[in-house]
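ligand=6-O-phosphono-beta-D-tagatofuranose
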Amino acid sequence: EVVKDRNGIHQVVLQNSRGASARVSLHGGQVLSWKTDRGEELLFISSKAIFMPPTPVRGGIPICFPQFGKRGSLEQHGFARNKIWVMDDHPPPLQPSDSSGKSFIDLLLKPSEDDLKIWPHSFEFRLRVSLSAEGYLTLISRVRNINCKPFSFSIAYHTYFSISDISEVRIEGLETLDYLDNLHEKKRFTEQGDALTFESEVDRVYLGSSDMIAIFDHERKQTFIIQKEGLPDVVVWNPWEKKSKSIPDFGDEEYRQMLCVDGAAIEKPITLKPGEEWTGRLELSYVPSS
Ligand code: TA6
């Protein structure tokens, strides 16, 4: 179902037979909502989010492409999340498992003449967002080099999970990994803990992670499971109180109700030769946990 938001931007609502739903905006190809069959919202959206292109909405799952972070002439986290995507009526076939029993939408982003001026690489970015019968959310990205010289990109699904309180959550699956710490000039450290818990601002890129990460929310008695392919790194970010107060579209205390854990490919950018295509898959699910 296609609806329009308050600024006339098209959003696509996906629904499964049990009443679970997801909402994807053509602005940025950004997932803005993912709800359980009981209508519980699983993603964080800031109460001060700005729904006015080209500003990316604070929350949901912005797609950082063609770069993560700030480097060179591209804006922070690249331009894909600031652009209007289009519905892709002729998506090349995916594996049957990517469609069977799922409600899905295919979106497409191609560079405009202006984009090519700041990032001179002809690409097609096809995004499939799907909701399974169990209510799991899958994002499949396919980036193709359209017969131009080889180019490299980094990518992150900047996922804002809604949590009960930051003191109640722990992440498992990042133990013993190296990470680049954005709070210490991106220096490399090694994770010592047996699970990641939060007492202050965290802004890290964990490197070479396994393909399954779990976020336990003790109060909600629920665990988010992140399963990924082609996305070797994991960004973990909570701005904490001081930083979130300096971000205009972040409410003062909201940092307690969110945690970004992003499937990403950052340390080793992906290089595509002419005609080559890269695929990255992210599946988000949730299970009751004791
Ligand atoms: O999550 C890592 C990070 O780069 C943080 O440093 C912070 O800047 C965050 O992304 C949000 O970036 P944004 O451009 O969406 O405000």
